[in-house]
């Protein structure tokens, strides 16, 4: 069976990248970061789960292909709170590459005042409904 089109992932990806590019604080060097965000693509990737410490939690990664957020299509079935939470966390990695997990979340809080929580049995990135509405419009 072919996986259905990951429509929710695509919608969240486009909205999150647009939101972050538009609202990133303008400081010295930020224009380069905005250009990097606007070049980002979303791609389904079979390697997201392969080799992950906990394959159940592995739904996205960055740094595998140039300018690409890789996703596992199974993430499409989660609520938008998790999808946008994970997406904006990955965008955080693209804003501050090589600063690790807490660095990505700190970039999102520092840049946009958005708190990423870790919820559910798998402790996945999660944002509130107010944040989802703000980003998806
Ligand atoms: Zn990948
Ligand atoms: Zn991460």
In short:
With 137 residues, the protein is of the alpha+beta class.
Characterize the structure shown.
With 137 residues, this protein is an alpha+beta fold. It has five helices and five strands; from the N terminus they run ααβββααββα. The chain has helices spanning 7-23, 30-39, 80-95, 100-112, 129-136; strands spanning 41-44, 60-62, 68-71, 117-119, 124-126. β2 and β3 (68-71) form a beta hairpin. α1 runs antiparallel to α2 (30-39), α3 packs across α4 and α3 packs across α5. The longest helix is centred in the N-terminal third of the chain and has 17 residues, at 7-23. It is globular and about 40 Å long. 34% of the residues are buried. It binds zinc ion (ZN) (2 copies).
Reconstruct the topology from this structure.
Elements: H1 7-23, H2 30-39, E1 41-44, E2 60-62, E3 68-71, H3 80-95, H4 100-112, E4 117-119, E5 124-126, H5 129-136
The structure holds zinc ion (2 copies).
């Amino acid at each position: 069976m072919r996986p259905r089109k990951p429509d929710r992932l695509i919608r969240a990806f486009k909205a999150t990248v647009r939101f972050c590019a538009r609202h990133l604080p303008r400081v010295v060097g930020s224009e380069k970061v905005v250009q990097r965000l606007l070049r980002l693509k979303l791609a389904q990737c079979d390697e997201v789960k392969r080799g992950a410490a906990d394959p159940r939690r592995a739904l996205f990664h960055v740094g595998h292909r140039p300018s690409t957020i890789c996703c596992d299509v199974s993430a499409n079935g989660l609520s938008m709170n998790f999808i946008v939470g994970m997406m904006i966390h990955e965008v955080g990695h693209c804003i501050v590459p090589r600063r690790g997990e807490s660095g990505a979340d700190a970039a999102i809080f520092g840049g946009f005042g958005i708190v990423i929580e870790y919820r559910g049995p798998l402790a996945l990135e999660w944002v509130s409904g107010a944040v989802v509405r703000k980003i998806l419009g």
